[in-house]
Each structure stands twice: as C-alpha cells, then as structure tokens.
Amino acid sequence: MDKLGVDLPLLLSQIVNFSLLAILLNMFLYKPILNALQARSERIRESLDNAEKVKQQLARVDADYDAKLQEARREGQTIISQAQERARAQEAELLVVARNNAAKIEEEARNKAEQDRQQMLRGLQGQLASLVTETASNVLGRELQTKGHDELINKSIDQLGRLN
Amino acid sequence: MSTKQKVIIAVAITAVIGIALRIFLPVGTPLVSVRAEELFHIGGYTITNSLLLTWIVMALLIVLAVVGTSKLRSGNAEALKQPRGLQNALEYAVEMFYNTMQGVSPKFAGRFFVIVATIFFLVLPSNWFGLIPGVGSIGLCYSHSAEHAAAPNYVATAGISTDTAAPVLAAAAEGGKYTHNCPSGTAFHPFLRPGSADLNMTLALALISFAVTEFWGFRSLGFGYLGKFFNFRGGLIQAAVGIIELISEFARIVSFAFRLFGNIFAGEVVLLVMAFLFPTLLSLPFYGLELFVGLIQAFVFAMLTMAFIDMAAESHGDHGHEEHAH
C-alpha cells in the first residue's frame, strides 16, 4: 500500500475533506436549490390550479350569461305575444263597440227620420185638412161649418193617411 | 474536394507539423509517479500536491455555491421566479443530477443526494483540473531525503536555494525538461495533482460509499441484511452465492477506488506520453478524450454509489445489475 501512496493520515484527511465539503455544499448548494426547485414547482402547480379555477369560473359565467340571455329572450317573447293577444282582444272589443255604436247611430237616425216623417205627415195632414176645407168651401161656395163636419174632415184625412 | 479528403489532409498536415516540431523541441523523458508527491509539512502532517488541489477544488466549489445561491438563501423572490447567471447554472447542474439520481433510485435519491452529489461535484472538477496545462507539470525539484525525512524543514531540503534544487518551470513549451534539470538525488514534484489521481482520495470516497451503503443496508433491513451474505437455509448453492456476495461487497471498495484512480491516472500518463512523443498538436485529441473520461468516471462513481445504496435496501430481490466496470 505504501508503494501506491496510500497513507492513513492522508486517507483520513480526504475523508474529512469530503465530509466538510458535503456539509458545506448541503448548506449552500443543495438545500437552497432543491428548496427553490420545490417552491417553484409548487408555485407552478398553484398557478395552474388557479388558471383551471378561473377557466371554470369563466365557463360558469358564460353559462350563466347564456341562460340569462335565453330567459330574457323567452320573457321578451311572452311579453310580445301577450301584447299581441291583448291588442287582438282590444281590437275585437273595439270592433264590437264600434259596430254597436254604428248600429245605435243608424237606429237613432232611422228613428229620427221616422219621427220627422211622422211630424211632417202630421203637419201635412193639418195643412191638407185646412186646404181641403178651404178648397171645398171655395168649391161649395160656402163656408163649411167646422163644427158638424169634423167627422167628414177626419175621415178624409184618414183616407189620405192610408193612401200614403 | 470532399469533406473526407479535407479532413484527411488536415490530419496529415497536423501530423507533419507535430512530428517536425518534435525534432526541434527537446523533450525530457516522462516521469511517472503513482504516489502523490509531497510538497511540505505542517505540524507533522504531510501535505501532498493532490491534497492541495483537492482543497483548491473544495474552495472553488464552496465559493461558487455561496455566491451562486446567495440570493436564494436571502429569500429573494425575484431570484426564485427568474434564476439568472451563476444561480441558473448551479440550479441546472443540481437539478439535472438530482433527476438522474431519481432515475437510478426513485426511493432513496432524496435521502442520499448529499453524499452522491458531493461525490460527483468533487470528482468532476478534480478530474478536469488534471487537464489544465501546468497541473502536473509545474513544480520543484525536491531532494529524495526530504520525501522520507520526518523533519519538516522542507525549505532547506526542497531547496528554494538554487544549488541543491533549482526551481524549474516545466511548461509544455519547454518540453518537460524537468527530468534533465533536476540534479541527481532530487525528484521533480509538481505543485498540483488531481485528487482523483491519488489513491488516498479515491479510496476515501470508496470507503465512504461502502460505509453509506452498508449503513443503509442495516438501517432498512436490520440484521436481516446479513442474511444476504450468510444464507445457509437455502442449501449449498445459496450459501455459496451469499459468500460471493460478501466478497463482491468488499471488492467494491477496491473496484471503486482503482477504477477512478486508474482512469484519471492513466489519462494523465497518456497525456504525458503523448506530450513526450508529440509536444504539439497531436496530443489534442487526447485532451478531448480525457475530458469525456473525467465526466464519465465522476458520473459512474456517483451513480454506482446510488445504485448500491438502492440495492442494499432490497431484501432478497434480484441482484441483476452488478457493477459494470469501465
């Protein structure tokens, strides 16, 4: 062993060297770096998790938005259809009222016309009676006594009315 | 001219220049020492050049670690969010090594990361430091008596004074003239030698690896761990297998120590011999090779330690993956 240069103090000093180096490198190299690597990978995992979460939230918000949009659309549709229905109902109602009004107006007009006619007829009758009496008195040359001939006059007016 | 032809011509020109320069540059005979050379003594302790380089490597690593992770340790949120510069490089190295170890032993990589990573991060720069020009080639001539003398008067014997031992710069440009320049009775001692080219360090690492493995075996299996080696209930074959296991367990110390030592030391020798044969250019490919070998050996040492720790915790599972010596 001596020819190979193996020497106990040197051997021991190399073992001590190694131990010292191991301790110091562990303190200054391995531990800080391995801790940093672990911290970094943890941070990366966290970030990825967060990203995943955000993505999920976004998806949820998107879904919510879609649902709300759908609902709003549906509501709008119902409102429109209700309005249309109501409008149709009102239209029908208005039509009925208008028709009734028109009928009433027509009726009234007809009644008025009838009344006017009756009135006119009545006026005409009076005039006719006096005219007839006058004409007759003229024709007969004497004044017919109104009294006592009323019956005759009324009969002739009645005939007149029937003629009409 | 095709690429292949270009390459061939480039190699030929390089070889010619290399061989031509060999003629003009005087090169001394390479001197190889398996032992780590002694430099000086402090209070009775011998300091070798490999120990010195190991300290330099350690200091460098610790300074890098302290500087690189200072922001992280002070809890700087910005540094955590966005690593920059040195911190980023250190993080990359540590994370990559951690993930590799996790691949070898998913269960125990975290628990033994300190040991395994320190092996890797100590051995790798040690290996690569040997490739820096000047490491292993700049030194002093020491008188032989100083090597074994108990007296720590190295200044006198190692000789800063020029008559006994002239300080010699043996850089590549001077072609390793040191063997000529050292007077007889003295030997050249380079100032620096990679720690992994010294058996003391590789053996120390091997013992640590062995101790941690056995500790973990007993820790996770109790005395049942010994059943792996002394298995007499399963018949003769099982008993023989147990004994072989026991031998291989201890053989690991040797194989760990000598694999790393052999590779790095041999690499040094190859570079030395190549520099001796061709002082310029042609030894370059071997530098690339040795860079690769240095990385592989550091990785193999750390990874095998991790694998053995993992296997020690298995009760009587398969022993399918034995070590693959490189």
Automatic annotation (TrEMBL), chain A:
Residues 34-71 form a coiled coil. Its main location: membrane. It comes from the Bacteria. Pfam families: ATP-synt_B (PF00430). The chain crosses the membrane at residues 12-30. Belongs to the ATPase B chain family. F-type ATPases have 2 components, F(1) - the catalytic core - and F(0) - the membrane proton channel. F(1) has five subunits: alpha(3), beta(3), gamma(1), delta(1), epsilon(1). F(0) has three main subunits: a(1), b(2) and c(10-14). The alpha and beta chains form an alternating ring which encloses part of the gamma chain. F(1) is attached to F(0) by a central stalk formed by the gamma and epsilon chains, while a peripheral stalk is formed by the delta and b chains. F(1)F(0) ATP synthase produces ATP from ADP in the presence of a proton or sodium gradient. F-type ATPases consist of two structural domains, F(1) containing the extramembraneous catalytic core and F(0) containing the membrane proton channel, linked together by a central stalk and a peripheral stalk. During catalysis, ATP synthesis in the catalytic domain of F(1) is coupled via a rotary mechanism of the central stalk subunits to proton translocation. Component of the F(0) channel, it forms part of the peripheral stalk, linking F(1) to F(0). This is ATP synthase subunit b. It comes from Herpetosiphon geysericola. The gene is atpF.
